Amino acid sequence: MLNMADALSALQQLATSPVAATLSEAFAEAGHELALVGGPVRDAMLGRPVNDLDFTTSADPDEILRIVKPHSSAQWDVGREFGTIAAKVGDETVEITTYRADSYDADSRKPEVVFGDNIEGDLRRRDFTVNAMALLLPEIKLVDPFGGVEDLLAGVLRTPGTPEQSFSDDPLRMMRAARFASQLSFAVADDVRDAMEHMSQRLEIISMERIREELSKLLCTDNPRPGMTLLVDSGLMELFLPEVPALKLTQDDHKRHKDVYEHSLTVVDQAIDLEHERFPDAEPDLVLRLAALLHDIGKPPTRRFEGGGVVTFHHHDVVGSKMAKKRLRELRYDNDTIKAVARLVELHLRFFGYSDAPWSDSAVRRYVRDAGPYLEQLHILVRADVTTRNVRKADRLAFAYDDLEERIRVLSEEEELQAVRPDLNGEQIMELLEIAPGPIVGKAYKFLLELRLDEGPLGEEEATRRLKEWYATLDA
Question: Is the pLDDT of residue 38 over 70?
Answer without folding.
Answer: yes
